[in-house]
Amino acid sequence: MLSGKVAVITGAGPGLGRTLAGLMVEEGARVVVSARSRAALEETAAAGGALAVPADVRDPDQVQALARTTVDRFGRIDVLVNAAFPGTHRKNVLDMDPDYLELWRSAVETATYGTLLACRYLAPYMVEGGGGSIVNVTSLSSRTGYAGRSDYATGKAGVHLLSHCLADELGPLGVRVNCVAPGWIASDALTTWMETRARDEGTTFQTVYDHDVDRMALRRIATEEDVARAVIFLAGDGAKAITGATIDVNGGQLFT
After folding, report:
1. Chain-centre distance of CA 143, in angstroms?
2. What is the DSSP-derived secondary structure letter of residue 15?
3. How many C-beta neighbours within 10 Å does residue 85 have?
4. Which residues contact 37 (CB under 8 A, 6 or more apart)?
5. Is 152 one of the annotated active-site residues of the chain?
6. CA-CA distance, 146 to 156, in Å (whole number)?
7. Close Cβ partners of 226 (under 8 Å, ≥ 6 residues apart)
8. What sign for the dihedral angle of Cα 44, 163, 148, 100?
9. Which positions of the chain have pLDDT values less than 50?
């Protein structure tokens, strides 16, 4: 599906980014992975057979260097996946002190401004090469608000409308822009969160798990591979008539 294509993944640390990099290599792509943490990035690159290029997506100079390094090495860019994780610090607006407000701004900048910068500096190489695909990883949290998650939700929601704008701007030039919006993803972090909820609610992990999964139409939590496969579909030629769209990968937890 991606044979011969050159793909860049931002936010490619542990978890989804690492899984996606490995699967893209298996699909025949030449993959460049990028993140702020060099140690985690090198683990991702080693596990997936990709090239590691550290970069902070909020820094225009570093994003431009990522684009140049990719083109110098592989000659072009066909696919860009923006998957930088802005983090969430779970605080009510009335409890936000000045230090937290800076964390809030940083989270939104990572998600929305970071996505914009990556598109600004990598998309021209796609246009030059005759076209390409941008896939932005957003979240179920950008579809509906939850208390204490306004930083994460706002940043990811901004990416949805940014993607619509860029799809309209870049479509005539042969570049498609779409989103994948995961819900919960089966992981150690999710398990820890459910265990914490169980303790807070005075119940068991299994009770919390069953309650949450029973709200999903498919009665299961999506895996990293489930989300990665949706990204790969949108990145490939099988989706060549799709732009400005969002694929929700949440097991039927939320219909949009």
Report:
1. 15
2. T
3. 20
4. 13, 54
5. yes
6. 13
7. 249
8. positive
9. none
Q: Which class does domain 6-185+223-249 fall in?
A: alpha beta
DSSP H or E stretch at residue 192? helix 188-201
- Residues making up the chain, counted from first to last: 256
Dihedrals phi, psi of 2, to nearest 5 degrees: -120, 20
The pLDDT assigned to 59 comes to 97
Total-model pTM: 0.94
Of 100, 113, 152, 209, catalytic: 152
Q: Tell me which residue of 90, 115, 83 sits closest to 10, measured CA to CA.
A: 83
Q: Which residue intervals of the chain bear CATH 3.40.50.720?
A: 6-185+223-249
Residues 6 or more apart whose Cβ sits within 8 Å of residue 196: none
* CB 82 within 8 Å of CB 159: yes
Query: What tokens were used for 241?
Result: 């008539």
Contact by Cβ (8 Å): 24, 133? no
Span between the terminal Cα atoms of the chain, in Å: 27
**CA-based nearest residue to 9, from 240, 246, 227, 241:** 227
Q: How far apart are the C-alpha atoms of 153 and 215, rounded to whole Å?
A: 21
